[in-house]
Design a protein that fits this description.
The complex is a heterodimer of chains A (428) and B (506). The two termini of chain A are 65 Å apart. The radius of gyration of chain A is 40 Å and the shape is flat. In chain A, α9 (262-282) runs parallel beside α14 (406-416), α11 runs parallel beside α12 and α12 (352-364) packs parallel to α13 (383-394). In chain A, 43% of the residues lie in helices and 21% in strands. Chain A is of the alpha/beta class and 428 residues long. Chain A has a 6-stranded mixed beta sheet, with helices on both faces. A two-stranded antiparallel sheet of chain A has the order 2-5. In chain A, strands 6-7 form a two-stranded antiparallel ribbon. Chain B has 506 residues and is α/β, with parallel strands linked by helices. In chain B, 52% of the residues lie in helices and 10% in strands. Chain B contains 20 helices and 9 strands. Chain B has helices spanning 19-35, 50-58, 69-84, 110-130, 132-137, 143-161, 163-175, 192-214, 239-246, 252-273, 275-295, 301-314, 330-346, 350-355, 364-374, 377-384, 387-393, 418-428, 431-434, 467-478, and strands at 43-48, 92-95, 100-105, 396-401, 406-411, 438-443, 451-455, 482-487, 493-499. Chain B has a 4-stranded mixed beta sheet. A 3-stranded mixed beta sheet of chain B has the order 1-3-2. A two-stranded antiparallel ribbon of chain B has the order 4-5. In chain B, α7 (163-175) packs across α20 (467-478) and α9 (239-246) packs antiparallel against α10 (252-273). The chains are: A alpha/beta (428), B alpha/beta (506).
């Protein structure tokens, strides 16, 4: 006789440990796949996890098994045309071998790509492992903290507006019961006695008078206990606590003049994606403002930002000026954490570069948490780079980096946000 | 078997099932199985969900197993394929243990549950209990206990020596897992309590033996010139056993890990050798049991149609040129062979008397039981594959010699070919033909402690490239130079892989 057991309610996660171990073991490969995937995403796409594909060769578990060659004889079913002694020319590579050797199952997982999905959280975790926001320490000081008021119990004193009626009346009832309970009980007894005396045929006038006097006294005593007393009053208590600011705005500035080709823009895009993903890990809501410029700057939407081509010269300061205007108009509220990311191929009208420096130093940098400039070029640096280098030397929240190929982006990004640089500030 | 023509009220054919219905079906299946003289371990039937089935898949089907990344990889693969709909989950998993644990999947209909109970709880179960290989090589009563012991031991090692260290050692053991099997010695049956108490003694003893082997102080009594010593005296095929006992620098906990992997490998060894028979036997019985249920009027036509649909897709053999072909389907071959044995017993032809004189015309139930008990795939096929079956499958043999520009057909399903096909198919299931023959050949005991393995190829089939990686794993366990020699047909010896100490600072 069999014994049935219902295991359906047992935990399903038996393999979780092993799955985690797998992810940990192939962290390097998975991370590589993760950073490769960044380029294929929209800047603000955060909802999805990611398909990870790592080479099957890396994760194979080797065993001794036979290779190609030698003499084999294999039995197959379904003969429809052969007789003993037939010779079949080997097909040029491939098919024949696949049928001929019975090894398919042994070496089954050969060089195929091993593809699997990781969740959104795992994705971000891998992407931003050991990274921290820059300037955490500094921001602790200059962050204007916002307070929120919250209910914090009751107190016995306060303004009438905060009076809690129900709580107060509850107190009143309790007090009255406590102070008059014994007297009321006695009163009930006396009244009962009085009633019996009245009902009796005999005359008890004296006793009745005495009783009535007692009753009257008791009633008076009870009436002297006030219906509500200051002692009963309860006021709602409010307290204030600081709330961390959770709003951030990220400015993406990009040069779209003729010299910026689509590859360069794609590289810049990756940088913006990384920054956006990263900010969303810290701030609850992150707004993105796209500013593109050639000789004039314009605020645009994401698609136009990345995919429309302009020609003409380059005046970088126009974008900075627009950024400054937008900050003043829409993000002047001190709750906003402002981040700037600028990408360019380094071309600028030479006279404009010093102006850019002034604009940054005087107007923008004091307002922003961090401003990153990446220059994507394979040519010599020009005046803009030199001016920016000067700013970098004097300002903590400004960084400029040089990127040559797509491969540089992630390392540069990591370098920008490396934890140990600011490790002393992480604890805050 | 007396045909029972009682008319029963048929059992509900669902498709939904509940526990009381399962019990009713199980009751009848059990009754019929007993009539067919199927002896089984007690059944423990566990109902699980699809996700739990994937968990079970990932840990090589066992209800409990130690943690290792490779099981995680397996899980991710299974999950991925399942999610994409590239694969359905198996209907069942059954474990060779006492009591015999079988899993039923929640999603299945009552028909499938009945099919699985007949197939796994009576088919496989009786095979585990009756077949000589399982009887000799595995101990159903202690496997679960042993896995519990192994899991706890490995967890403790991880706490003590670090997960990475433990996983690395296990990786290396897994690479050599197929070479962790004793083919000619009976392993002992021991309980978990004994296993634990012995484990400590063994640790101490093993280390002392190893120390003895590797001692560098000269032995005082025999101060002759050092003789060239050949160690081991005979080549050894159980690499993991050899490492466990003789690796010079392994810690005692690492020896225990080697042992655990070896034990598990040994436990699965009979299953590898009886795939065709085991599946064939289980299909043969689910077919008979459910048909009997139908004959007794216990199940409806609808039940029967659903059952037959599933049954036929399981025992289907695609032909060599079909896109679904991936070798011979063990379910198809096994099922048809047992059915054919029954036919030869009941309705033998003149040909059967010639080719299978031992069984033609005998009592069929005795004969199938005899076949189940005393054979493994290789011998089963060479004993019972009848010409009729060869014709039914239209089997043909291909000779593939890499040194020739063509492949040739050496035998087909005709009078001249029967014997050859039978031999070739049988050889195809001979594990020693399938797994490369690699043995421990020598250890330089008095010198640099280098370990030499020897590969003796059959029919000139070379080893795959993966040997280099496996040798690295071997090196991790042995910790001194390791090399792999190939012995050519003319007797020449060639080193085909090596891992030296300097390239690998272990």
């Amino acid at each position: 006789m069999a014994h049935f057991i219902d295991r359906r309610l047992n935990s399903k996660g038996k393999s979780t440990v092993n799955r985690q171990r797998f992810l940990r073991r192939y962290r390097q490969q998975i991370k590589r796949a993760v950073s490769d995937s960044v380029g294929n995403r929209s800047v603000t796409d955060l909802e999805s996890g990611e398909q990870i594909s790592i080479s099957g060769r890396d994760i194979s578990e080797p065993v001794f098994h036979t290779g190609k060659g030698g003499k084999r004889s294999v039995v197959h079913p379904g003969n429809d045309q052969f007789t003993a002694g037939d010779r079949i020319e080997r097909p040029p590579q491939g098919k024949g071998a696949g049928q001929g050797d019975g090894e398919a199952s042994n070496s089954g997982e050969g060089e195929d790509e091993f593809v699997f999905a990781i969740s959104k959280d795992e994705y971000l975790e891998l992407l931003f492992e050991d990274l921290a926001l820059p300037n955490l320490k500094k921001s602790q000081f200059d962050k204007v903290v916002e307070y929120e008021t919250y209910r914090a119990g009751y107190q016995t004193d306060g303004v009438p507006g905060n009076l809690d009626v129900i709580r107060s009346l509850k107190g009143s009832i309790a007090r009255r019961i406590a102070l008059t309970g014994r007297d009321r009980r006695k009163l009930r007894e006396l009244e009962a006695e009085l009633a019996t005396l009245h009902a009796d045929k005999h005359d008890h006038t004296l006793a009745i008078i005495a009783l009535e006097k007692d009753i009257a006294e008791l009633r008076e005593k009870i009436a002297r206990v006030p219906f509500i007393d200051t002692f009963d009053l309860r006021f709602k208590n409010y307290d204030k606590r600081p709330i961390p600011t959770s709003k951030a705005v990220m400015f993406c500035l990009m040069d779209v003049s003729g010299s910026m080709d689509q590859t360069t823009k794609d590289m810049a895009k990756r940088f913006y994606i990384l920054l956006y993903l990263f900010l969303t890990r810290t701030y609850e809501n992150v707004e993105v403002v796209y500013i593109r410029h050639h000789t004039q700057a314009k605020e645009v939407d994401e698609h136009e930002f990345f995919y429309s081509q302009e020609t003409g010269g380059t005046i970088v300061s126009s974008a900075l000026k627009l950024m400054d205007e937008i900050i003043k108009a829409r993000y002047s509220d001190a709750n906003w954490n402002i981040y700037g990311a600028q990408a360019s191929d380094g071309d600028n009208w030479a006279d404009d570069s010093p102006y850019c420096r002034d604009l940054l130093l005087k107007e923008i940098l004091p307002l922003t948490r961090y401003f990153a400039y990446i220059e994507i070029t394979e040519r010599q640096h020009q005046s803009l780079w030199r001016e920016y280098q000067a700013i970098e030397a004097s300002c903590e929240n400004f960084v400029s980096k040089h990127i040559q190929t797509v491969k540089d982006i992630y390392p540069v990004f990591r370098e920008l946000f490396k934890k140990d640089q600011h490790s002393n500030a992480v604890g805050v | 078997m007396p045909k029972t023509n009682q008319t029963h009220e048929p059992l509900s054919d669902g498709p939904d099932w509940n526990f009381s219905l399962l019990e009713q079906y199980e009751f009848h299946i059990d009754r019929i199985a007993k009539n067919f003289r199927l002896e089984t371990y007690p059944n423990q039937i566990e109902v699980i969900t699809g996700e739990q089935m994937m968990d079970a898949y990932a840990s090589i089907g066992m209800p409990i197993n130690y943690s290792h990344w490779s099981f995680g990889k397996k899980f991710i693969q299974t999950e991925q394929q399942y999610r994409r709909g590239q694969m359905g989950l198996a209907y069942e998993i059954v474990i060779n243990s006492d009591p015999c644990i079988a899993y039923l999947m929640e999603e299945n209909t009552i028909t499938l549950q009945a099919l699985v109970m007949a197939h796994a709880c009576y088919g496989h179960n009786s095979f585990f209990k009756g077949n000589y290989l399982f009887e000799t090589w595995t101990d159903a009563g202690s496997i679960i206990d042993y896995l519990v012991f192994a899991k706890n031991y490995i967890t403790k090692c991880e706490e003590k020596y670090g997960t990475t260290e433990v996983e690395d050692t296990l990786d290396s053991c897994h690479a050599l897992m197929n070479y962790g099997v004793d083919r000619y010695k009976r392993p002992q049956k021991i309980s978990i309590v004994e296993e634990m108490s012995r484990q400590h003694q063994r640790e101490a003893y093993l280390q002392s033996q190893v120390n003895e082997l590797w001692r560098t102080l000269p032995d005082i009594k025999t101060d002759d010139r050092p003789q060239p010593v050949h160690f081991p005296k005979e080549p050894q095929e159980n690499l993991l056993y050899f490492i466990e006992k003789n690796a010079p620098l392994l810690e005692s906990w690492q020896r225990e890990l080697v042992r655990i992997v070896r034990k598990i490998s040994q436990y699965f060894y009979p299953q590898k050798q009886t795939q065709v028979m085991n599946e064939g036997w289980a299909c043969f019985w689910h077919y008979h049991i459910l048909t009997q249920l139908y004959d007794e009027g216990l199940v409806t036509d609808r039940f029967m149609l659903e059952f037959l649909h599933n049954h036929t897709s399981v025992v289907m053999q695609p032909e060599y040129n079909s896109p679904y072909y991936s070798g011979i389907n063990p379910y198809a071959l096994g099922f048809n062979m047992f059915m054919d044995i029954k036919r030869v017993c009941q309705h033998p032809t003149e040909e059967d008397y010639r080719y299978l004189p031992d069984i033609a015309g005998k009592e069929w139930l005795d004969t199938v039981h005899f076949a189940m008990r005393n054979f493994k795939d290789e011998s089963f096929i060479s004993q019972f594959l009848s010409p009729k079956l060869i014709r039914d499958f239209r089997l043909f043999a291909i000779e593939d010699d890499a040194s020739r520009p063509y492949v040739s057909i050496s035998a087909i399903h005709d009078e001249h070919g029967y014997q050859a096909i039978r031999e070739k198919l049988s050889a195809q299931y001979n594990l020693s033909n399938v797994e490369p023959n690699i043995q421990v050949y020598n250890v330089n005991v008095r010198g640099d402690r280098a370990l030499t393995l020897r590969y003796i190829p059959q029919k000139g089939i070379p080893l795959d490239e993966s040997r280099d990686k496996v040798m690295q794993h071997l090196h991790r366990l042995w910790k001194f130079d390791v090399s792999l020699e190939q012995q050519h047909e003319d007797g020449a010896i060639e080193v085909i892989a090596a891992c030296r100490r300097s390239n690998n600072a272990a």
